[in-house]
Amino acid sequence: MPRYFEFEVSLQVVQPRVWRTFLLRTTSTFAHLHAAIQDSFGWRDYHLWEFRLPTWAGRPIAGLACAEAYDRPTPNGRTVKLNTYFTGKRSVEWCEYLYDFGDDWVHDVKLIAVRSAPESFKRRLLDGDWSGPPEDCGGVPGYQRVVHFRLTGEDLVEDDPEGLDTWLDGWEVEADLEAIKVAFDR
Fold first, then answer.
1. What does the pLDDT average to over 32-58?
2. How far apart are CA 32 and CA 125, in angstroms?
3. What CATH number did the domain enclosing 9 receive?
């Protein structure tokens, strides 16, 4: 039977809590995990990314090979297998995922369990809540701005609610998890 890592991924600092749980094959790479996070959070893969140790210095585990050009010597996420870091044998296994080195979206990536399934698939979205922030919204303060705008219709930064609504292009605070699942599980 195929074996899968069950991950819970959540954005740090952001309220309401934005999170997803999904299954990913144990033979996958960190690039596969990156793609799963991108797809489940609604990101569009526009920016640099890396997985790093959850410590103050945050030594990179894997990421884009080109990140080395930014003084971040990082092992290539396409070749580093998840099972070189995650084992399912320790009581707590987690790392951080940094997406967009400008907006600095830091995610906690926690291994919940290693599971077997009678059927074979590459990945499967299990659950989650709230929409991931829109690309380039300006980090946590920008996300708080767009959440407030969607909930109240009031833009606290500029007096241009129509412009902000146009820029958000249909983005909503609450995720359509069923639609995300269909696209994710394909």
1. 94
2. 14
3. 3.10.290.30
